[in-house]
Design a protein that fits this description.
Blueprint: E1 3-8, E2 16-20, E3 32-35, E4 38-39, E5 49-57, E6 66-67, E7 69-72, E8 75-76, E9 85-93, E10 95-96, E11 99-101, E12 104-105, E13 112-117, E14 128-130, E15 133-134, E16 142-147, E17 153-155, E18 158-160, E19 166-169, E20 177-179, E21 182-184, E22 193-197, E23 206-208, H1 210-216, E24 224-225
Parallel strand pairs: 3-7, 4-8, 5-9, 6-10, 7-11, 8-12, 9-13, 11-14, 12-15, 13-16, 14-17, 15-18, 16-19, 17-20, 18-21, 19-22, 21-24
Antiparallel strand pairs: 1-2, 1-5, 22-23
Length: 285
C-alpha cells in the first residue's frame, strides 16, 4: 500500500499532507484525524476548483489509498467567494473507511457541500456521514453527491434547505443506507433525495420526497421532514456556528440513533436526553 494524500485547504494553492500507509508498513494506518478546524474559502474567481478539505489517492500513480480518516468537529463557512466548484468536503479516488461526524457545513459557494467519487475507480468506500449539519442553501447547491463508492451510511444529519439532501449514483447503491436524518426545505414540498442517479454534472435518477422515499424504499424509516429550529435564524449565522444548535422544541431532539459518539460539536456529552439528537449539537439539560 503506497502513500496517499490529505490536502487541507484554507487558501489556494492546496497544501498536501501525507496520509495513508508507506510501502514498508504491513498493517492499515492508525486512525487519521482532522479535528476542530475552521475552513473559510476566501479565494475569488478565476479559482474554479475550490475545496474546504480535499482527500484523494490514485492507485494508477504512486498512491494506493487513504483509509480510516476521521473528520470531525469542523466548521465550514464562506460568504465572500464567488460561486464555483466543487465542495466543502471532496473525497476522490480510492478512499475507504472515513468517519465524518459532528461537522457544521454552512452554505458553500459550490454545487455540493460533500462530494464522494471514485473518478473511474469503483471503491468499497464504507464511509459514515453522521450527526453533521449540512446547510448548502446557496440557491444552486445540493447536500451530497456520491458516485463509485459503495457502502455509504448517512445517519443523524440535518439537511437544511439543500436542493437535494443527497444524490446517490447507481454505482454507489450497493450497501448504501440512510436513516434518522432530518430534512427541511424552506420552500416546502418537492423531491429531496435522488437514488440511482448519474454523475454530478447530470444526476437525473429516481427522485423522492421523504414520504415517498419511506413508502417505496427501506431508507429513512425514522427520517423526519421539518424545521430543525436552530437557535438563531439561518440568515444571521456567520462566523459563530453555535446558531446551528437546536432549540428545545426542535424535532431533532432525542430522535437520533445511538452511534456510539460521546461528545458533540461543542464538546458536550452525548446523549443528554433519552436518545441522541440529530445534528451536530446535543441539547443539554
Amino acid at each position: 500500500m503506497t502513500q496517499g494524500h490529505v490536502a487541507l485547504d484554507e487558501h489556494l494553492p492546496r497544501c498536501e499532507h501525507p496520509g495513508g500507509v508507506h510501502p514498508s508498513e504491513p498493517e492499515p494506518p492508525e486512525r487519521l484525524l482532522v479535528h476542530g478546524q475552521r475552513r473559510r474559502r476566501l479565494v475569488r474567481a478565476p479559482a474554479w476548483h475550490r475545496d474546504g478539505i480535499f482527500v484523494f489517492a490514485r492507485p494508477d500513480t504512486d498512491q494506493a489509498s487513504v483509509e480510516n480518516l476521521e473528520i470531525a468537529y469542523n466548521y465550514f463557512e464562506d460568504n465572500t467567494s464567488d460561486l464555483g466548484s466543487t465542495a466543502w468536503l471532496y473525497i476522490e479516488y480510492v478512499c475507504k473507511g472515513f468517519n465524518i461526524h459532528h461537522n457544521v457545513l454552512n452554505a458553500s459557494r459550490s454545487y455540493y457541500a460533500i462530494r464522494v467519487m471514485g473518478d473511474g475507480f469503483q471503491v468499497a468506500g464504507n464511509h459514515v456521514f453522521a450527526n453533521n449539519v449540512i446547510a448548502n442553501a446557496n440557491g444552486i447547491g445540493d447536500g451530497m453527491h456520491i458516485q463509485e463508492s459503495s457502502g455509504i451510511q448517512i445517519l443523524n444529519n440535518i439537511f437544511y434547505d439543500d436542493g437535494n439532501a443527497y444524490l446517490v449514483a447507481k454505482s454507489s447503491m450497493a450497501g448504501f443506507f440512510a436513516d434518522y436524518n432530518l430534512i427541511y426545505r424552506v420552500g416546502g414540498a418537492g423531491p429531496v433525495v435522488g437514488l440511482n442517479t448519474g454523475p454530478a454534472e447530470s444526476p437525473g435518477g429516481d427522485t423522492y420526497d421523504l414520504a415517498t422515499l419511506k413508502s417505496k424504499t427501506a431508507f429513512e424509516q425514522h427520517g423526519i421532514a421539518g424545521d430543525p429550529q436552530f437557535s438563531a435564524s439561518f440568515t444571521t449565522i456567520d462566523s459563530d456556528p453555535s446558531g446551528f444548535a437546536p432549540k428545545a422544541s426542535s424535532p431533532a431532539i432525542d430522535h437520533g440513533s445511538d452511534l456510539g459518539y460521546t461528545s458533540d460539536f461543542a464538546g458536550k456529552p452525548i446523549p443528554a436526553g433519552s436518545a441522541a439528537d440529530i445534528g451536530a449539537f446535543e441539547l443539554q439539560p
